[in-house]
Design a protein that fits this description.
Helix content is 43%, strand content 16%. The chain is an alpha/beta fold. The protein is globular and about 60 Å long. The strands form 2 sheets. Strands 4, 5, 6, 7, 8, 9, 10, 11 and 12 form a 9-stranded mixed β-sheet that branches. Strands 3-2-1-13 form a 4-stranded antiparallel β-sheet. The longest helix has 18 residues. Helix 11 packs parallel to helix 12.
């Protein structure tokens, strides 16, 4: 008798026993679903917020892309009879649903609280004792961007993403390079010698302009060139990557892990940047595994609120190939106060360029329901 059939025969009693007596897990049945849309009062940045309640009285929070009353209704139907322990099965079931990432984070928040450990410890971490952070600079002109940098630096940030000036026309060439260099020189002087800068293309450039900028900024030693151009053509991205040493980062809007696999296969990316609000915590962990075997780091993208930031910090602490985490720092003081009010201010603290790990169970945050009434729209 061959070895394989013999092995199967030996396993049959165990398989039969498992089928008859499946292991019993704690309940943590999801008994309630609430949702809000949150919008910053000045900047207008908007996102969705999901709260899950369980039969044991535990609650979990997570953020997603903005929601509608219709999508919340379908979410309640999909979660009927569900269990927080099945967070991975729920992620697969809700794939494509705008609340998928929020449910994933909320379920992990519940499980961490049930186990009385931080989410990163539940996921096998920590891989580090603090998380390196950066923030994106915004403004209508160089003076406004410079003011944003100074405020962010005073708040503890030491790494900044500088936006590329808006090109006057497609394939602007040298004029764009000179404008970007002037802006970068101004920001570097204000940031100081100990700071790091990132060049942020936001996917708006043509491959030609992206290639010229990548070459021109080699001597600046930027951390990376974020979304230098649209990534519709893998051939164009491979060419830019092969001809320059400036690290390239992609991932904005990518909905499938296969997108990153294609970039890695073509050697067209140096830093993977999946979005938390699309993939969720466990989805990004899968992408990080794909990147790790290709010796590429991960910098999760978070353009939503402070609960999303808290989730990203736990995610970062669980990833061995984590690089740096984006933490939004809005221009307007009212927007920053709003973000602080939602979680009591403990989610987006940065000290000398690093965010400390939260050691409380779950995501380690307490949501202020009064702030949700002030800044949010409840979705029935």
């Amino acid at each position: 008798m061959s070895a394989i059939p013999l092995r199967r025969l030996r396993l049959q009693p165990l398989m039969a026993q498992a089928a008859v007596s499946p292991p019993q897990s704690p309940s943590l049945a999801i008994t309630g679903v609430e949702a809000w849309n949150i919008r910053q009062p000045v900047g207008g940045r908007a996102w969705g917020l999901v709260r899950l309640a369980t039969s044991e009285g535990l609650e979990g929070w997570g953020e997603s892309k903005p929601l509608s009353r219709e999508t919340v209704a379908t979410l309640r139907t999909a979660l009927k009879g569900a269990n927080a322990h099945s967070y991975e099965a729920l992620r697969v079931k809700l794939k494509g649903h705008p609340a998928c990432a929020g449910v994933n984070a909320a379920a992990l928040d519940i499980l961490g609280k049930a186990a009385k450990v931080p989410v990163y410890q539940f996921l096998g971490g920590p891989t580090r004792n603090k998380v390196r952070a950066y923030t994106s600079l915004h403004g209508a002109n160089d003076d406004a961007i410079l003011e944003n940098l100074r405020d962010a630096k005073a708040a503890g940030h030491r790494a900044f993403a500088v936006p590329v000036p808006t090109p006057p026309f497609r394939n602007s060439g040298k004029a764009l390079v000179l404008a970007a260099q002037r802006r970068m020189d101004t920001m570097r002087q204000a940031a100081g010698d100990g700071a790091d800068l990132i060049l942020n293309g936001s996917g708006r450039l043509t491959p030609g302009d992206a290639a010229i900028l990548a070459e021109a900024f080699e001597r600046y030693h930027v951390l990376f060139f974020d979304e230098p151009c649209a990534n519709a053509s893998l051939g164009a991205l491979r060419k830019i990557s092969a001809e320059n040493v400036t690290p390239l980062a992609f991932g904005a809007g990518a909905a499938e892990a296969s997108h990153f696999q294609d970039l890695l296969r073509e050697d067209a990316v140096d830093l993977c940047r999946p979005e938390l609000a699309i993939h969720g915590i466990s989805g990004i962990r899968k992408i990080a595994v794909i990147a790790e075997v290709n010796y590429v780091a991960v910098a999760p993208r978070n353009n939503e609120g402070p609960i999303g930031t808290a989730a990203c910090l736990h995610l970062a602490a669980s990833l061995p190939n984590f690089f740096i985490q984006h933490i939004p720092f809005p221009n307007a003081r009212q927007d920053r106060e709003m973000r602080t009010a939602i979680t009591g201010g403990n989610a987006e603290v940065v000290q000398d360029g690093y965010a400390p790990l939260n050691t409380q169970p779950g995501l380690g945050i307490r949501v202020n329901r009064d702030a949700l009434q002030t800044y949010g729209e409840a979705l029935a």
